[in-house]
Write a structure and sequence with these properties.
The protein has 312 residues and is mainly β. The protein has helices at residues 3-22, 119-130, 221-231, and strands at residues 26-32, 36-42, 60-65, 68-73, 77-83, 86-88, 100-103, 135-141, 145-151, 169-174, 176-182, 186-192, 195-197, 210-214, 234-239, 243-249, 267-270, 275-280, 284-290, 293-295, 307-310. The protein has 3 domains: 23-130, Sandwich (Gamma-B Crystallin, domain 1); 132-214, Sandwich (Gamma-B Crystallin, domain 1), CATH 2.60.20; 217-312, Crystallins (Gamma-B Crystallin, domain 1, Sandwich), CATH 2.60.20.10.
Length: 312
Protein backbone atom coordinates (compact mmCIF):
# COMPACT_ATOMS: atom_id res chain seq x y z
CA UNK A 1 0.00 0.00 0.00
CA UNK A 2 2.96 2.35 0.57
CA UNK A 3 4.62 1.73 -2.78
CA UNK A 4 2.68 4.40 -4.66
CA UNK A 5 3.34 7.25 -2.13
CA UNK A 6 7.02 6.26 -1.94
CA UNK A 7 7.35 6.29 -5.73
CA UNK A 8 5.66 9.68 -5.89
CA UNK A 9 8.02 11.06 -3.22
CA UNK A 10 11.03 9.75 -5.11
CA UNK A 11 9.81 11.36 -8.34
CA UNK A 12 9.27 14.69 -6.60
CA UNK A 13 12.73 14.50 -4.99
CA UNK A 14 14.37 13.73 -8.34
CA UNK A 15 12.54 16.62 -9.99
CA UNK A 16 13.61 19.00 -7.20
CA UNK A 17 17.25 17.94 -7.49
CA UNK A 18 17.16 18.35 -11.26
CA UNK A 19 15.68 21.83 -10.92
CA UNK A 20 18.33 22.79 -8.39
CA UNK A 21 21.11 21.54 -10.69
CA UNK A 22 19.65 23.49 -13.61
CA UNK A 23 19.59 26.67 -11.52
CA UNK A 24 23.03 26.23 -9.95
CA UNK A 25 25.06 29.43 -10.21
CA UNK A 26 27.83 29.32 -12.79
CA UNK A 27 30.29 31.76 -14.30
CA UNK A 28 33.13 31.35 -16.79
CA UNK A 29 36.10 33.71 -16.80
CA UNK A 30 38.39 34.23 -19.79
CA UNK A 31 41.96 35.52 -19.74
CA UNK A 32 41.35 38.04 -22.55
CA UNK A 33 38.65 40.41 -23.72
CA UNK A 34 35.79 39.13 -25.90
CA UNK A 35 35.84 35.65 -24.34
CA UNK A 36 39.26 34.76 -25.74
CA UNK A 37 42.23 33.00 -24.19
CA UNK A 38 42.33 30.51 -21.35
CA UNK A 39 39.06 29.98 -19.45
CA UNK A 40 37.92 28.61 -16.10
CA UNK A 41 34.36 27.77 -15.00
CA UNK A 42 33.33 28.34 -11.37
CA UNK A 43 30.26 27.05 -9.57
CA UNK A 44 31.22 27.67 -5.94
CA UNK A 45 32.96 30.20 -3.72
CA UNK A 46 36.64 30.80 -4.50
CA UNK A 47 38.29 33.00 -1.87
CA UNK A 48 41.62 33.15 -3.72
CA UNK A 49 41.90 32.61 -7.47
CA UNK A 50 45.60 31.84 -7.07
CA UNK A 51 44.44 28.31 -6.23
CA UNK A 52 43.10 28.02 -9.79
CA UNK A 53 46.09 29.75 -11.38
CA UNK A 54 43.75 32.58 -12.41
CA UNK A 55 44.56 35.42 -10.00
CA UNK A 56 44.36 38.83 -11.71
CA UNK A 57 43.90 37.06 -15.06
CA UNK A 58 40.22 37.62 -15.98
CA UNK A 59 39.67 39.92 -18.96
CA UNK A 60 36.04 38.98 -19.71
CA UNK A 61 33.37 36.66 -18.32
CA UNK A 62 30.02 35.02 -18.93
CA UNK A 63 27.59 34.58 -16.04
CA UNK A 64 25.16 31.86 -17.04
CA UNK A 65 23.15 31.83 -13.81
CA UNK A 66 23.12 33.34 -10.35
CA UNK A 67 24.44 36.64 -9.03
CA UNK A 68 28.15 36.83 -8.28
CA UNK A 69 30.31 39.12 -6.19
CA UNK A 70 33.73 39.61 -7.80
CA UNK A 71 36.46 41.27 -5.71
CA UNK A 72 39.80 42.89 -6.38
CA UNK A 73 41.63 41.08 -3.57
CA UNK A 74 41.56 37.63 -2.00
CA UNK A 75 39.01 36.92 0.74
CA UNK A 76 36.54 39.37 -0.84
CA UNK A 77 38.47 42.51 0.02
CA UNK A 78 39.20 45.67 -1.92
CA UNK A 79 36.93 46.88 -4.72
CA UNK A 80 33.96 44.47 -5.12
CA UNK A 81 31.05 44.44 -7.56
CA UNK A 82 27.94 42.27 -7.82
CA UNK A 83 27.13 41.07 -11.35
CA UNK A 84 24.06 39.31 -12.71
CA UNK A 85 23.66 36.93 -15.68
CA UNK A 86 25.04 38.25 -18.95
CA UNK A 87 28.08 38.58 -21.19
CA UNK A 88 30.85 40.88 -20.00
CA UNK A 89 33.18 41.35 -22.98
CA UNK A 90 35.36 43.90 -21.17
CA UNK A 91 35.60 44.12 -17.39
CA UNK A 92 36.87 47.70 -17.50
CA UNK A 93 38.52 48.58 -14.17
CA UNK A 94 38.20 45.01 -12.92
CA UNK A 95 39.99 43.61 -15.96
CA UNK A 96 43.00 41.56 -14.78
CA UNK A 97 42.13 42.63 -11.26
CA UNK A 98 39.87 39.90 -9.80
CA UNK A 99 41.17 37.69 -6.98
CA UNK A 100 38.02 36.22 -5.33
CA UNK A 101 34.46 35.36 -6.40
CA UNK A 102 31.34 34.05 -4.67
CA UNK A 103 27.65 33.59 -5.38
CA UNK A 104 25.38 36.17 -3.75
CA UNK A 105 22.07 34.77 -2.53
CA UNK A 106 18.99 36.72 -1.50
CA UNK A 107 17.73 40.15 -2.52
CA UNK A 108 19.61 43.24 -3.51
CA UNK A 109 20.38 45.04 -6.73
CA UNK A 110 23.21 44.13 -9.05
CA UNK A 111 25.93 46.71 -9.59
CA UNK A 112 25.88 45.66 -13.25
CA UNK A 113 23.13 43.85 -15.17
CA UNK A 114 23.16 42.23 -18.58
CA UNK A 115 26.86 42.59 -19.29
CA UNK A 116 27.91 45.76 -21.11
CA UNK A 117 24.50 47.40 -20.63
CA UNK A 118 25.30 48.09 -16.96
CA UNK A 119 28.89 49.23 -17.42
CA UNK A 120 28.18 52.96 -17.10
CA UNK A 121 26.30 52.53 -13.82
CA UNK A 122 29.13 50.43 -12.36
CA UNK A 123 31.65 53.01 -13.55
CA UNK A 124 29.66 55.80 -11.89
CA UNK A 125 29.76 53.92 -8.58
CA UNK A 126 33.50 53.44 -8.85
CA UNK A 127 33.99 57.11 -9.64
CA UNK A 128 31.87 58.03 -6.62
CA UNK A 129 34.12 55.83 -4.47
CA UNK A 130 37.25 57.45 -5.87
CA UNK A 131 35.83 60.89 -5.07
CA UNK A 132 35.79 60.21 -1.33
CA UNK A 133 38.12 62.36 0.78
CA UNK A 134 41.63 61.35 -0.27
CA UNK A 135 43.83 59.62 2.26
CA UNK A 136 46.18 56.71 2.79
CA UNK A 137 47.54 54.89 5.84
CA UNK A 138 50.89 53.12 5.54
CA UNK A 139 51.97 50.38 7.96
CA UNK A 140 55.40 49.12 8.94
CA UNK A 141 54.26 45.46 8.87
CA UNK A 142 52.16 43.33 6.55
CA UNK A 143 48.38 42.94 6.94
CA UNK A 144 48.05 46.52 8.22
CA UNK A 145 50.00 45.95 11.42
CA UNK A 146 52.79 47.80 13.18
CA UNK A 147 53.55 51.49 13.27
CA UNK A 148 51.34 53.57 10.98
CA UNK A 149 51.40 57.00 9.34
CA UNK A 150 48.46 58.80 7.74
CA UNK A 151 48.75 60.96 4.64
CA UNK A 152 46.23 63.49 3.34
CA UNK A 153 48.51 65.34 0.93
CA UNK A 154 51.74 64.90 -1.03
CA UNK A 155 54.93 63.97 0.82
CA UNK A 156 58.08 64.40 -1.26
CA UNK A 157 60.41 62.75 1.26
CA UNK A 158 59.38 60.21 3.90
CA UNK A 159 62.49 61.11 5.91
CA UNK A 160 60.49 64.01 7.33
CA UNK A 161 57.99 61.47 8.69
CA UNK A 162 60.67 59.15 10.05
CA UNK A 163 59.11 56.50 7.80
CA UNK A 164 61.49 56.24 4.84
CA UNK A 165 61.67 52.74 3.29
CA UNK A 166 59.49 51.27 6.03
CA UNK A 167 56.05 50.62 4.50
CA UNK A 168 55.05 46.98 4.01
CA UNK A 169 51.25 47.37 3.65
CA UNK A 170 48.72 50.17 3.29
CA UNK A 171 45.07 51.15 3.06
CA UNK A 172 44.00 53.77 0.54
CA UNK A 173 40.84 55.37 1.90
CA UNK A 174 40.11 57.62 -1.07
CA UNK A 175 41.65 58.79 -4.33
CA UNK A 176 44.52 57.21 -6.23
CA UNK A 177 48.06 57.60 -4.94
CA UNK A 178 51.41 57.40 -6.67
CA UNK A 179 54.10 55.72 -4.57
CA UNK A 180 57.75 56.13 -5.55
CA UNK A 181 60.90 54.40 -4.35
CA UNK A 182 62.98 57.59 -4.24
CA UNK A 183 62.40 61.02 -2.75
CA UNK A 184 60.89 63.75 -4.95
CA UNK A 185 58.86 61.12 -6.83
CA UNK A 186 61.90 59.55 -8.47
CA UNK A 187 62.79 55.96 -9.36
CA UNK A 188 60.11 53.31 -9.92
CA UNK A 189 56.63 54.71 -9.32
CA UNK A 190 53.23 53.04 -9.28
CA UNK A 191 49.67 54.28 -8.85
CA UNK A 192 47.51 52.43 -6.30
CA UNK A 193 43.73 52.77 -6.09
CA UNK A 194 41.35 52.61 -3.10
CA UNK A 195 41.38 49.41 -1.03
CA UNK A 196 43.56 47.30 1.22
CA UNK A 197 47.06 46.46 0.02
CA UNK A 198 47.94 43.89 2.65
CA UNK A 199 51.39 42.95 1.38
CA UNK A 200 53.34 45.22 -0.95
CA UNK A 201 55.34 43.33 -3.55
CA UNK A 202 59.11 43.15 -3.45
CA UNK A 203 59.68 46.28 -5.55
CA UNK A 204 57.82 48.53 -3.08
CA UNK A 205 58.10 46.68 0.23
CA UNK A 206 60.38 48.70 2.56
CA UNK A 207 61.16 50.91 -0.42
CA UNK A 208 58.66 53.80 -0.57
CA UNK A 209 60.23 57.24 -0.12
CA UNK A 210 57.62 59.64 -1.53
CA UNK A 211 53.88 59.66 -2.24
CA UNK A 212 51.40 61.99 -3.91
CA UNK A 213 47.73 62.14 -4.73
CA UNK A 214 47.00 61.63 -8.42
CA UNK A 215 44.46 63.93 -10.02
CA UNK A 216 43.51 63.41 -13.65
CA UNK A 217 45.14 66.18 -15.63
CA UNK A 218 46.51 67.75 -12.43
CA UNK A 219 49.63 67.33 -10.35
CA UNK A 220 50.84 63.79 -10.02
CA UNK A 221 49.82 62.45 -13.42
CA UNK A 222 50.49 65.76 -15.14
CA UNK A 223 53.96 66.22 -13.67
CA UNK A 224 54.81 62.59 -14.35
CA UNK A 225 53.71 62.88 -17.98
CA UNK A 226 55.85 65.99 -18.36
CA UNK A 227 58.84 64.18 -16.89
CA UNK A 228 58.28 61.14 -19.07
CA UNK A 229 57.93 63.31 -22.18
CA UNK A 230 61.22 64.97 -21.33
CA UNK A 231 62.95 61.66 -20.69
CA UNK A 232 61.16 59.73 -23.45
CA UNK A 233 59.90 57.13 -20.99
CA UNK A 234 57.01 54.66 -20.83
CA UNK A 235 54.00 54.20 -18.57
CA UNK A 236 52.58 50.69 -18.09
CA UNK A 237 49.02 50.23 -16.84
CA UNK A 238 47.53 47.17 -15.14
CA UNK A 239 44.33 47.24 -17.22
CA UNK A 240 43.19 48.10 -20.72
CA UNK A 241 42.26 51.71 -21.40
CA UNK A 242 45.06 53.17 -19.20
CA UNK A 243 43.35 52.06 -15.98
CA UNK A 244 44.56 50.18 -12.91
CA UNK A 245 47.97 50.40 -11.28
CA UNK A 246 50.58 52.37 -13.21
CA UNK A 247 54.34 51.93 -13.37
CA UNK A 248 56.69 54.45 -14.96
CA UNK A 249 59.76 53.16 -16.81
CA UNK A 250 62.66 55.29 -17.98
CA UNK A 251 65.45 52.74 -18.20
CA UNK A 252 65.97 49.21 -19.47
CA UNK A 253 64.23 46.55 -17.38
CA UNK A 254 65.43 43.01 -18.02
CA UNK A 255 62.90 41.30 -15.76
CA UNK A 256 59.67 42.95 -14.60
CA UNK A 257 59.35 40.37 -11.82
CA UNK A 258 61.81 42.53 -9.90
CA UNK A 259 59.29 45.39 -10.03
CA UNK A 260 56.22 43.29 -9.30
CA UNK A 261 54.74 44.08 -12.72
CA UNK A 262 55.56 40.90 -14.64
CA UNK A 263 52.81 39.80 -17.07
CA UNK A 264 50.50 42.52 -15.79
CA UNK A 265 50.49 45.28 -18.42
CA UNK A 266 47.14 45.76 -20.17
CA UNK A 267 47.91 49.09 -21.89
CA UNK A 268 50.82 51.51 -22.22
CA UNK A 269 51.94 54.98 -23.26
CA UNK A 270 55.26 55.62 -25.02
CA UNK A 271 56.34 59.26 -24.63
CA UNK A 272 59.43 59.19 -26.82
CA UNK A 273 61.82 56.97 -28.77
CA UNK A 274 61.30 53.37 -29.88
CA UNK A 275 60.82 50.78 -27.14
CA UNK A 276 60.94 47.00 -27.39
CA UNK A 277 58.51 45.01 -25.23
CA UNK A 278 59.17 41.28 -24.86
CA UNK A 279 57.13 38.32 -23.67
CA UNK A 280 59.89 36.84 -21.49
CA UNK A 281 62.69 38.16 -19.29
CA UNK A 282 66.03 39.07 -20.90
CA UNK A 283 64.22 40.15 -24.09
CA UNK A 284 63.24 36.65 -25.16
CA UNK A 285 60.07 35.29 -26.71
CA UNK A 286 57.80 37.45 -28.83
CA UNK A 287 58.99 41.07 -28.95
CA UNK A 288 57.21 44.08 -30.43
CA UNK A 289 58.52 47.62 -30.90
CA UNK A 290 56.27 50.59 -30.08
CA UNK A 291 56.95 54.22 -30.97
CA UNK A 292 55.44 57.31 -29.33
CA UNK A 293 51.71 56.93 -28.78
CA UNK A 294 48.90 55.63 -26.58
CA UNK A 295 48.16 51.90 -26.81
CA UNK A 296 44.91 51.13 -24.97
CA UNK A 297 45.07 47.41 -25.86
CA UNK A 298 48.15 45.27 -26.35
CA UNK A 299 46.82 42.38 -28.43
CA UNK A 300 49.08 39.34 -28.18
CA UNK A 301 51.20 41.04 -25.48
CA UNK A 302 48.24 41.60 -23.14
CA UNK A 303 49.45 40.48 -19.67
CA UNK A 304 52.54 39.06 -21.37
CA UNK A 305 55.26 41.70 -21.02
CA UNK A 306 58.30 40.66 -18.94
CA UNK A 307 61.14 42.88 -20.21
CA UNK A 308 61.49 46.34 -21.75
CA UNK A 309 64.28 48.33 -23.39
CA UNK A 310 64.70 51.39 -25.54
CA UNK A 311 66.12 50.51 -28.94
CA UNK A 312 66.26 53.97 -30.57
Amino acid sequence: MLKRPIQLALLLCTAWLSLGAAQAAELTMFSRDDFQGRDVTIRDTVSNLTALGFNDKAGSMIIRSGRWEVCQHADFRGDCRTLGPGEYRDLHRLSNNISSVREVRGGGRDDDRGGDRGGDRGGDRERDRDQRAPGVTLYADGDMNGRAVNLRSDVSNFQQLGFNDQARSMVIHGGSWEMCVHADFGGDCRVFGPGEHRRLDRAFRNAISSARLVREGGHGQGRDRDRNRRDGGVDLFGMTGFAGERMSVRDEMRNLSESGFNDRAGSLIVYGGQWEFCQHAEFRGQCLTYGPGRYDRLGSLHNQISSIRRVR
